[in-house]
Amino acid sequence: MIIDELKYKILQQFGFPPTQEQAHALEVFAEFLTDRDPHAVMILRGSAGTGKTTLSGAIVRTLKEIRQKVMLLAPTGRAAKVFSLNSGSPAYTIHRRIYREKSFSGVEGQFNLNDNLYTDTLFMVDEASMIANMGLGGMSFGSGCLLDDLVHFVYQGRNDRLLLIGDKAQLPPVGEEESPALHAAMLEGYGLKVYECDLNEVLRQSEESGILYNATMIRQMITHDDITQLPKIHFAGYSDIKQMPGAELIESLAYSYHHVGLDDTIVVTRSNKRANIFNQGIRNMVLDREEELSQGDILMIVKNNYYWMEEERKSNNKLQSNEIPAFLANGDRAKVLKVRRRIDLYGFRFATLLLQFPDYGNYELEATVLLDTLTSEAPALTHEQQEQLFHQIEEDYQDIPLKTDRMKAIRQNQFFNALQVKFAYAVTCHKAQGGQWAHVYVDQGYMTDDMLNPDYIHWLYTAFTRASERLYLVNWPKTQTDNTHQNPQETAP
User: Which domains does the chain have, with CATH numbers?
Assistant: First the structure.
């Protein structure tokens, strides 16, 4: 009876009759939530256009209505922001909720797994395909394996459980062949009782969308293991997907910036090198910015940084404040409000900036940034450059006799801890993953059949599904276009 009541209440939040798949997903969710087994977990997999977002939003609103405690999480700040907008409730990064900074850790940014003090709480995690478990990010956070830590955190609480939501066709975490958090066998390995369901049917209201039609076609190449030739994209009859010749790019980007804004427009490309070329071209030719860095520029953090948030907590006497992000993550975006001063020091160039972080409630922070990374082709400072900076700064602390004290002083140096940033008008697909923008421009570069592999197809699918309103394919080759029009419903698995 409880299951039927829960299903009925969720259906009331839908506003329209669910598909057969959605009805089944509701059934599975209701069984999962009412299961008395303390180790129950659920995976909800759904591809673009299948109503996954609608379903999860209806679930959140229902849980709030029946006073069931729920915590919304996502792997990145951008993904948390999108989840919050879609559900109408606050969402947070996983790291911000499950880790706490070690005492006396300095700027190394060592975070321990937090104690789970939540009770009777459902943890809903969106964009779960991004959750890694290889420990490639080092040991800064807990065990270094995010999925291990997330599961451990949730199930050490009293009557807490986990719902993982994601799309298995998206890019898996770096270094992994598939997304471990969306794999039932992986979760069973933790001793959990797994509920799972898949949404594959593209909704009828999505038929008019060229973005979703083509995304569905690309996804089928993945799910059917049919990667034999470069996918041919359908443009005919669709208003939301368009070929973009290079000669029209400047005018089109100017239109997007004017109509949806800088923060809701993105260029997704294949490499840091190409992203750098696009960023310079956009600043010079579209935004008419001649200075190296200007007020209004959009930046992206390209290396995790813990120092500035630690300084903020000290200065605000808010050591555990939820108002201050735990750290600035690789991939976080920031808007330049003011450029205060520039300085050449230690063989590098720095600037003091007042920054605003749109994915963290427009949080404002004054920080020193490293200008050298802005236009470099490397993802961040190279190991050699990092060493060079360290040794140059070390010379200023030669008067400190003890090496441990000297190292501690260096690690508190604002220039050693300068934010490493790049322009964020164009980014790689891994940097864009988890986010959504109104207008997305996709540059795949030169492609041949011999470059065709599963990674490319996952890349293409992920890039396509970042767009919520319009998708522009830059310099798309004629060999990868098909002007016929088919119904994706006919071939959906």
Answer: 2-199 (3.40.50.300)
Query: What is the torsion angle, in degrees rounded to the nearest 10, for the CA atoms of residue 96, residue 102, residue 104 and residue 109?
Result: -50
User: What is the predicted pLDDT for the residue at 426?
Assistant: 96
Helical segments of 137-290, H only: 146-155, 184-188, 210-223, 249-259, 272-281
| Rounded distance between C-alpha atoms, residue 360 and residue 306, angstroms | 15
Question: 3-class SS at 338?
Answer: strand
Helix/strand/coil for 100: strand
Helices and strands: H and E segment counts in the chain: 16, 20
Q: Which residues of 117-127 are buried (b: 16+ CB within 10 A; e: fewer)?
A: ebeebbbbbbb
Which residues share a beta bridge with 474? 244
**Strand (E) or helix (H) holding 146:** helix 146-155
pLDDT in tens, 125-154: 999 999 988 765 555 787 889 999 999 999
In 256-411, the DSSP E strands lie at 265-269, 298-301, 333-345, 348-357, 363-370
What's the token pair of residue 13? Answer: 């939040």
Distance CA 306, CA 304 (A): 7
Torsion of CA 164, 170, 174, 175, to 10 degrees: 90
Range name among 125-139, 165-179, 428-442 with the lowest pLDDT average: 125-139
Token pair for 404: 């441990």
Tokens of 254: 């100017």
- Burial of 242 from C-beta contacts in 10 A (0-12 / 13-18 / 19+): middle
Are 284 and 291 in contact, with CB atoms under 8 Å apart? no
**pLDDT at 104 (0 to 100):** 40
Instruction: Return all residues near 224 (Cβ < 8 A) that are at least 6 apart.
Output: 493
CA distances from 228 to 39, 170, 222, 270, 451 (A): 42, 19, 11, 21, 11
424 close to 300: Cβ distance less than 8 angstroms: yes
Statement: residue 72 has pLDDT above 90:
yes
Check if the beta carbon of residue 113 is closer than 8 Å to that of residue 153. yes
DSSP character at residue 285: I
378 confidence band (pLDDT: 50, 70, 90) = confident
pTM of the model: 0.87
Radius of gyration of the chain (CA): 23
Which 3 state secondary structure label does DSSP give 1?
coil
Q: What percent of the chain has pLDDT over 90?
A: 58
Give the phi and the psi of residue 486 in degrees, each rounded to 5. Answer: -125, 165
**What is d(CA 488, CA 421) in angstroms, rounded to the nearest whole number?**
41
